[in-house]
Known about the structure:
Strand content: 15-25%
Radius of gyration: 39 Å
Number of strands: 20
Largest sheet: 7 strands, mixed
Oligomer: single chain
Helix content: 40-55%
Amino acid sequence: MMRRAGAALFASALVALMLAPLALVFGLFWQLGGESVRAHLIEAVHGRLGVVLFALVLLLSVGAMLACRLHRAHVRQAFTLAEEIELIAGAGEQLRIREHGPASLRAIERAVNVLAARREALRADVAEQVAQAQRSIEAERNRLAALMGELAQSVVVCNLDGRILLYNARAREQFRGLSASPQLADGSELIGLGRSIHAVFERDVIAHGLETVRRRLARGDDPAVANFVLGCGQGHLLRVRMSPVLAEGSREPDGFILLFDDITSQFVSEARRDRLMQSLTDDNRASLATLCAAAEQLAREGGDASQRARRIAEVRSEATRMGERFDTAAAELAEARRARWPLEEMHATDLVDAVRVRIAAATGVAVEVEQVDDVWLEADSFSLLQAVAFLAWRIREASEAYTLSLRLLRVADKVCLGLGWSGHPVSEETVAAWEIESMRAADRVLPTTVREVIERHGGEMRFERERARGRIWLGMMLREAVARPDEAGARGVPLADGRPEFYDFDIFDWAEDARVLDDTPLSALNYTAFDTETTGLDPSGGDEIIQIGATRIVNAKLLRGESFEQLIDPRRALRPESIAVHGIVPELLAGQPTIDAVLPAFRAFVADTVLVAHNAAFDMRFLQLKEASTDVVFDRPVLDTLLISALLHPNQESHRLESIAERLGVTVSARHTALGDAIVTAEVFIRMLPLLAERGIRTLGELREASERTFYARIRY
């Protein structure tokens, strides 16, 4: 619109300049001549009015054509030259202006190319100096990296908001198996730079661990760590150790390190072995009791007194030794169980407060705290909270109690955590059934039981009826902490050498997503660049997605290792013209998952990011048409490199992805594959960010508003 207005104004000015001399001559004759001259002028014009008008129209046409040529050759070319200079200044380190303008502009183009070459030489010199200065820093980073790669444990480093800053390959592989769609070929990872650890661990687990770490820091413990065992997806059990990342010169953490192992198979095998050992112990105890009874019976029978006495003594002696061995084995087995599940020191008030909050959140039942003794206990706090919340849910379901009482008392060398209620009576048999039932947390079934949690704490369950008040109490007997733990168990496995597979330490200051995204700087956001391949170009006419590819951008860096690529069975025929573009034939789609299985995994992959696509309206239309059938909604903000290109370079003739990539110096490879196009889109977008900043467009809201004003924003599919 502005270019057309400028061209029209230029043409009008040029025609006015051409007509001005004729008008001046005519005016002089009219003004200086007498009546006879004016009469001759009128007669000449009147008799040849058609010729005069034709001459004027011809003159105007020639003037307009000349004006358009001059505008295209000089004015518009100057605007195009200005955009190319901006490209070189902003993003094109090796870009040069092609000398194709008029002679008046070629000198400027040559001068700009000379300046660009000199700037590149200066940049190369500066880059070399910076590289030399950074070698020592890189060496330090490599030494830090060497602490990670060879660890047998999975390692994840996060900031306080739970955003992942570092992880090793073992962590990624471990959680890939726990994803929501394990049948997908790739892209279903839960671990990635800039992603939230809360996609893996419940938010309250991390909050509970950080609270424990802060408490240990406050009292000067070294190391200040938290240990817990928890369930995580598809019945898996993880043993987790949390350590703080301390701010310089402070005892306040600004991040944390998680080391964890999947101990599901270990736990299952050890639980099976424990049950076998317990069974053997119990069965042999029964046999031993029978043996002792037989000895007593033998003592009462007649016969030779001396021989009978000798045999009875032998039986009693052997039975006593067997009993002692069984007692020793049972004690060692119980101690081994406790050693496998390290317990942490916790004050009674902290545990009661945590229990009260957890019960209220899990069941909606009000909790009254009756009595809390000043006592320290040893507890695996998170599993204990899960067990208490599960029992509270069972009590609420069985007795319809709307209020629970809570107390924590010292009983001899034990600590009794009691849950009391008034309501429908519950039998001891029912409580015993609750003990051996697999616990539930939210919508997940955990692979542990209340009895296993209580045994882990070296305790037992007590059932008591308080008839005077018509109340029933369930008591969990726990071990009192007689002294501060020596932290040997908390230290876990020391850090070893190796290299991390993926790391980025530049996003500790991540902004919470609760902040309005439109006001967030573009540099503070994470992005997912994506593309789709389809059966055809008519989403509303029944065409379907056959491939989705995506890659992530964190801290203005393309993370090629964190990608999503999945073929999809469209359950319809492919158009021949589409096969000619992307090369995906029906045989490649046979046996692939359908769109309803892929979209949930893709939605999880793009979580907490801004979507970026080229001609995004096309891809988003396909996704929006699947909302009703899949119940998957893509409500993340969307940016379009087509619109951004039209915004940055309005005088360029083409805004195709290849043309933009060529202008910005991006190498195009694997074109017309979903992942290949997503990678090109990501690299193009990264190069656009500094150009947007130069134009004063620095926030997501500013970019969206500016993009929506371009012509291409009107395209609909």
